[in-house]
Design a protein that fits this description.
2 copies of one chain form a homodimer.
Chain A (H helix, E strand, L loop, with lengths): L4 H8 L3 H9 L6 H14 L5 H8 L4 E7 L8 H16 L3 E7 L4 H13 L4 E4 L7 H8 L4 E4 L10 E4 L1 H14 L5 E5 L5 H16 L9 E3 L4 H12 L7 E4 L2 H13 L9 E6 L12 E4 L2 H17 L7 E4 L2 E3 L11
Parallel strand pairs in A: 1-2, 1-3, 3-4, 4-5, 5-11, 6-7, 6-8, 8-9, 9-10
Antiparallel strand pairs in A: 10-12
Helix pairs in contact in A: 1-2, 1-3, 5-12, 8-9, 10-11
Chain A binds a DNA duplex through helix 2 and helix 4.
Chain lengths: 341, 341
DNA sequence: TTGTAGGCGTTATCAA
DNA sequence: TTGATAACGCCTACAA
């Protein structure tokens, strides 16, 4: 058994009350006693039992995050950078981070949220990859369970979130391609239920409209946000009679898959075909050629979300509950050259 | 406040003892009572409090994993696939998975392991990316804290692990390159303290010796297992007067960085320069050209490690405590062609 | 400034 | 087959 507060108290011939208060920094403990307590506690290697503290204080000092995605394609750089941000923020606040995995709208997903809200191993939850009608947001709000989100939903619900103005980003991206002479610009998106798809697709369409380019539904493909999904969707687009000269992808992974499809057809990306992504992950710097992308600050956003969540848990109002950030267009070689139209 | 066992008992006019035993499946409860209890518990939405249960049973029903690496370069596909495996296995055993982040041998790393062993929010720990003299293994063994590892250490310590025979894999890889006509084969590794480096580097050297090729230390570079690290190390190698015709990289990320360095020098990977990696992550399928690699079953290994850890926690002996797996050589275009020597 | 005592929600021991 | 009761380790109102 690990050393408990009792052991510390016994050693010092003090009551556990005094030890507890000394360690928690109450000011009704004499300076001398406090020092003795702290020294002894450290010497004995005393760390309060998480479970006991949780039970007594009725909070877990932990937050939870469920990784979206489907085995075996979990290798999403977005998630891992996001988790890193959550993990570091959690550590710096002396919180635990609980992680689970579940694919969107699966039984497993319902299970885990039910368990976390009932059994309370976490005080709050971070949501990502929101859906337009996100049942998780509804459910958590109904149960009055603290949560914050990366992105928002189309629900009559007010909750704290940070979202990217990816719509504006995609408009900008289309402009960039149009300026390079592109007229047949394709789009590979994600399933319609995701907010990110709704917004990025809207940006794509708005960008076309701004440039007086007709929307052509045959130039729209769908992926599942993975490399392989992008690869498959791009194959179809590139085999069209009237092939697009540019493909905008819903994220970097999709773009990486699309680049592969282009190569297999002997197309030189950047010259014969422009390809762009979204996220600005490290991958995008090292593709061949380097990938034009819209960069979002994943790591920092995750950290900031934890701060917001802590405010929510503490019951404080959040200074800026709805944060909207602009993605940064990073132009690289994959869209660097003018297309003769 | 959530519904407690008391509420269930009160509703049924039973003692909390009976309710507890009924729900935990003890056989000294009448069938009828058990059914009533289960029905009512479900109706009320009762889920046992994690904290109370932990305190009473003296176990957390949770396992922990610390992601190795340094912000902001956490985007390591190995880690994210590993976490997915741990997460799924944990979920299927009704365990929580606690995640933290710390760079190797940092203060933060010492901190988190101390906290986890003392404060006991987890019953056991999974270690990865072992170091030759891994203080974590020593520390956990000393404190008699259950753990399993991906890879092993050079310590007089017996603990359960799963490791890849990456040494044999690299020997095989060198053979493959030699058969393609390569004589100047370079190696980009990781810091020497990592077991994976010791083994892969040994395999590289052994492969050279088997082929009667002299070892040339100028052909050895070091990276930090990231794309950027691989990129930088490859730059130096490719600027040598006597340039290597092949580069073996300690992992896929390093190889991806190396490919970029090659492209920037106008070298066609696969024809002018062979490059190979290790891990067999999804990335490797989509590089230009697709990357030859040694594939290890990251997801499955993580799941299997959880099973082993559970045995350790339960105090059972593990049927096969030291598992050694062979990586699978996947030859792709990045090493597909013969080199004229 | 320090100590006593009760209870957070469970499970385990023992008695009925 | 069921129930009363005592912990698990900690925090805190209240008493001294």
């Amino acid at each position: 058994m690990a050393v408990t507060i009792r052991d510390v108290a016994k050693r010092l011939r003090l009551s556990i009350t005094t030890v507890s208060r000394a360690l928690d920094g109450y000011d009704d403990v004499s300076k001398k006693t406090r020092e003795r307590v702290i020294r002894t506690a450290r010497a004995l290697g005393y760390v309060p039992s998480r479970a006991a503290r949780q039970l007594r204080r009725q909070r877990a000092d932990a937050i939870g995050y469920v990784i979206p995605g489907q085995a075996p394609y979990f290798t999403d750089p977005f998630s891992s950078e996001f988790i890193a941000g959550l993990g570091d923020a959690a550590t710096s606040h002396n919180l635990d981070l609980l992680i689970s995995t579940a694919s969107p709208d699966s039984d497993a997903e319902h299970h885990i949220y039910a368990r976390w809200t009932q059994s309370r191993p976490v005080d709050g939850i971070v949501l990502s990859r929101l859906r337009l009608k996100d049942w998780r947001a509804k459910y958590l709000a109904q149960n009055d369970f603290p949560f914050v989100a990366h992105g928002h939903a189309r629900l009559r619900l007010d909750f704290p979130y940070i979202e990217m103005d990816s719509r504006a980003g995609f408009v900008q991206l289309v402009q960039h391609l149009v300026a390079r002479g592109h007229r047949r610009i394709a789009y590979i998106g994600a399933p319609a239920k995701f907010t990110l798809q709704a917004e990025r697709f809207a940006g794509y369409q708005e960008g076309l409209a701004d440039a007086n380019l007709a929307f052509d539904h045959t130039l729209v493909g769908e992926s599942d946000l993975t490399r392989t999904g992008g690869y498959q969707a791009a194959q179809r687009l590139l085999d069209l009679n009237a092939r697009p000269t540019a493909i905008i992808c819903v994220n970097d992974l999709t773009a990486i898959g699309a680049m592969r499809a282009a190569r297999e057809r002997g197309l030189l990306v950047g010259r014969d075909l422009a390809i762009a992504g979204y996220d600005g992950t490290e991958d995008s710097e090292h593709t061949d050629p380097p990938l034009t992308t819209l960069k979002q600050p994943i790591y920092d956003t995750a950290q900031r979300l934890v701060e917001m969540l802590l405010q929510r848990i503490a019951g404080n109002s959040i200074a800026e509950p709805h944060v909207i950030l602009q993605p940064e267009l990073i132009v690289r070689e994959s869209t660097a050259f003018d297309i003769a139209s």
